[in-house]
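Worked example 3. Consider a protein that binds NDP.
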Amino acid sequence: MEYRFLGKSGLKISALSLGSWVTFGDQIGEDVAAACMKAAWESGVNFFDTAEGYARGKAESMMGNILKKFGWKRSDLVISTKIFWGGNGPNDSGLSRKHILEGLTGSLNRLQLEYVDLVFCHRPDKDTPIEETVRAMTFLIDRGRALYWGTSEWSAEQIRMAHAIARSEKLIPPTMEQPQYNMFHRERVEDEYRRLYDEIGLGTTVWSPLASGFLSGKYLRGVPAGSRLSLKNYQWLKERFEGPEAEEKLGKVRKLGRVASELGVTLPQMALAWCLKNPHVSTVITGASRAEQVVENMKAVEVVKKLSTGVMAKIEKILGNKPQPEPDFRSW
Ligand code: NDP
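Given these inputs, the predicted complex is written out as structure tokens:
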């Protein structure tokens, strides 16, 4: 395993990590989840991601039980959770000081931990002033209940604003962002955030690197039984992978599969390695419904070196979606 710094922080995080969305508590039981975490751990993964909203808290409870069962040394682990969707009451969601404090208390109880290493604001909250959120996060860190805080799917402008408030009010700024990033979803990481990596040393823990499994090639011949897009509760997700645009993407997946075969690797391994190739990615959070997938996916670390300039150019040609750099108007 390779370990990368989380942005400009001093924290080292495994370049590949494991998350619990869809799977823990909704799709798989504790035994399979434990087997997935064990396979990840044995490959050198130190970072496990969850959220208060995943399977309505069940994902955190499951992860907590598994961590306790294995008894891994706390200092060898990096655990994150995300706060935003905590329930149906008027104060059970969003980023108010009240929900952030109560939400994290609930998460820590379910995880059976004294602190999480990372806590994320799972989405921006248009109804809460950013200053209130920055203060609440600073409070949690000062009390030792989280070590670093970050955002998920915030715009570059919102992240900059949080930094400006933290600077002027002597509060703790966000360290990292959790955006979606994969071969089909590139704008934020490669374009919108591009100045933030140097300006504020932003780290990224990127999600859905296989676009919910679409980039594994498993959907080339329909939706296999038991796969994510076959799950009853996730039909809204399936709908995102239908229509002419999805058909076009499937054509690209087919071509990408050929490139992976030429390299002697699997398509999931190549798609994960492609994410790892980006130096602004601190960790790629993988997902798995079976331990075998984890074993296969973790080998992606070895595949990065196979992605030569020539291979990357071939992939780029198939994708045809590289975000364009800002024009240099001075040279006009
Ligand atoms: P992926 O896009 O990698 O999808 C993972 C799914 O793809 C698996 O559950 C499995 O589904 C399938 N899969 C994985 N490996 C293989 C393989 N080798 N061969 C075939 N199929 C495979 O990641 P996720 O969407 O799961 O996201 C990863 C993590 O990111 C989440 O667990 C969560 O922690 C985080 N996340 C954060 C979000 C945020 O808003 N901050 C949003 C979403 C995720 P199956 O077998 O069922 O088909």
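Take a moment to read the result before moving on. The chain has one domain: 3-320. Residues 19-23, 49, 82, 122, 152-153, 178, 207-213, 216, 218, 227-228, 268, 285-289, 293, 296-297 surround NDP (CB under 6 Å).
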